């Protein structure tokens, strides 16, 4: 007996958000509808494309493609054998950084049993990340030539000082550089999460580099507003003081050095394979920090040993649960592995 997978997407935009409700299983057919007219799906931040233009992909775990085409042209039902299937929808293909190219979609892995009718509902969400820059007059006076260069493994994108568009990138690490005719000077790095949009203002200062975050949650994406001060003669932090603390991503390249590192306290109760991001916490001997205050990926974290009494007393999340999400500056020795991650041990000083 052949099996049937009944594929349906219900895009339900509620309170100007991009949500979807699951369909109930049908016996003979399945109808598709929008919870509200499509014209109302424009939010204050992003506008949803026509869902009929999404690309629907249905592929078995053996690599066989059962459907790869427009969602609007899909068959009412797709006949499959019992097994495991990867199903996904994408508003656009996104392979490298590009301007004004948000990618919406979702993907799921489903297991179909003999004779089962399965209804699949996708959650419509922003999959890539965005960055938009503005520049103070002081920055433009001191850096009036060249442009900003966004560097990722997938490709680079030039961001001119006059640019007004949002640059979209793959979620993950991105390097921000000042590209001049003969040289490219690294300014700082960021780790972008899916659905995050960074609004960054670049300023210039005589001899310091600092970073300040404020976070505002929008209906479609997490917006992070940031001000980065670039020193006139100082193109990056060196870890020599709290004022010149290096970021977590920079510290990962400084194994063996004792230096100042900044990050946000994002979790604790670590093991060799996990980080707890939500309290209450039970272990006061360590914590996890990251560049993103809302980080939920273990791989993006930096483990921190709290061994010195004064440091442990002030920072541990068991006694100080309100420290979660706070920015902290720490002086310690960078190690290759602490709970299986790059980390900081023998922390002797801190600042918050």
Verbal overview:
The chain is mainly beta. The protein folds into 3 domains: 3-126, no CATH class; 129-236; 248-351, OB fold (Dihydrolipoamide Acetyltransferase, E2P), CATH 2.40.50. It has 3 helices and 25 strands. The protein has a 6-stranded mixed beta sheet. A 5-stranded antiparallel beta sheet has the order 5-4-7-9-11, with no helix packed on it. The termini are far apart.
Total beta strands: 25
Category from helices, strands and their pairing: mainly beta
The 3D shape can be described as: flat
Strand order of the largest sheet: 8-15-12-18-20-19
Give the CA-CA distance, first to last residue.
65 Å
* Helix count from the secondary structure assignment: 3
- Taking pLDDT < 50 over at least 5 consecutive residues as the criterion, the unreliable ranges are 1-44, 207-219, 232-236
Q: Over the alpha carbons, how many angstroms does the gyration radius reach?
A: 24 Å
How would you state the average pLDDT, rounded? 78
**How many domains?**
3
How helical, in percent, are the residues?
under 10%
Strand proportion: 35-45%
Report the sheet with the most strands, covering strand number, pairing sense and barrel closure: 6 strands, mixed
Order of helices and strands: EEEEEEEEEEEEHEEEEEEEEHEEEHEE
